[in-house]
Design a protein that fits this description.
The protein is about 40% helix and about 20% strand. The chain is of the alpha/beta class. The chain has a 7-stranded mixed beta sheet with strand order 3-2-1-4-5-7-6. Helix 1 packs across helix 8.
């Protein structure tokens, strides 16, 4: 993941990555039925503290804030300030913080909701359990943790390019020590961390031709296809015996063509747990 961050920053100072993350957010929110949170938290109660881990430009925070009927405190953390928005409202702030490092002592037990989406791949050498424990430590009694990660098991009717992409993603995840499909470890990790009322929901994400929303077709293509170059760069560096130059150089174009002609689908797991 450090290589991924360096790749996107060195390429164009994160401009394309910001665009990819914007597309990804819109596609994910649509797949989740427009719901930013799946936990039973009362946003009409003022004064909640809400943390978004791996916030990038804070799009998830801004979206949640726009739907909240009350005033809250919003905190976004990431490891590259170059991704943060140029300006933010007074009730929202951003700061550098890695999930691999201890959180500030004053944050312990201080948040009503902690959210993290598509970030766990950045955890190594930490484990899923150690990160979940660290995030759970931020929760007040009765507060909620919501984690969202891609279920990298391929849907049976996907085409060869998408199957290849997901297979490389699983190999990279396994090589990092996280197992081939870390999303399936989230619920167990929450339970081991002492959280209660742990629930898991699977959502379907439609790409390209299969996405019936015309405004999202291209976004659903670009958000995944533009993740191919940094993924294959990682394979080249970490799994050189699995790397094939011809496969790597054509995977992005083959995936894009496949999405445009027949579409594809991926799944994500939304896992929630509550602090006792």
């Amino acid at each position: 993941m450090d290589d991924f961050v360096k790749h996107t920053k060195d390429r164009d100072d994160n401009k394309s990555e910001k665009a990819r993350l914007t597309d990804q957010h819109d596609v994910m929110m649509d797949a989740m039925g427009g719901k930013a949170i799946f936990v039973p938290i009362d946003l009409s109660k003022p004064g909640l503290r809400i943390l978004d881990s791996g916030t990038a430009d804070g799009r998830w925070l801004f979206g949640l804030r726009s739907t909240s009927p009350a005033k809250h405190e919003y905190v976004g953390i990431d490891i590259d300030e170059g991704l943060y928005p140029e300006s933010a409202p007074e009730d929202m702030h951003f700061q550098n913080q890695s999930i691999r490092e201890p959180f500030p002592a004053e944050w312990q037990g201080s948040f009503d909701l902690v959210h993290q989406r598509l970030v766990m791949a950045a955890a190594p050498p930490e484990t899923v359990l150690s990160v979940v424990k660290r995030l759970a430590g931020l929760l007040k009694p009765g507060a909620w943790l919501q984690l969202v990660e891609v279920d990298t098991d391929s849907v049976p009717d996907n085409g060869p390019a998408l199957r290849s992409f997901l297979n490389y993603a699983q190999q990279m995840s396994a090589a990092s020590g996280m197992g081939p499909n870390l999303a399936k470890d989230l619920a167990g990790a929450m339970q081991k961390a002492g959280l209660q009322n742990v629930e898991q929901q699977s959502i379907d994400i439609m790409h390209g031709f299969k996405n019936k929303d015309e405004s999202l077709k291209q976004k659903s293509i670009d958000s995944l296809c533009n993740a191919v170059p940094p993924l294959m760069q990682g394979v080249k560096m970490i799994l050189p015996d699995k790397y094939n130059e011809e496969e790597a150089s054509t995977l992005q174009s083959r995936l894009r063509k496949e999405f445009e002609e027949s579409g594809g689908s991926t799944k994500a797991l939304v896992v929630c747990g509550q602090k006792a």
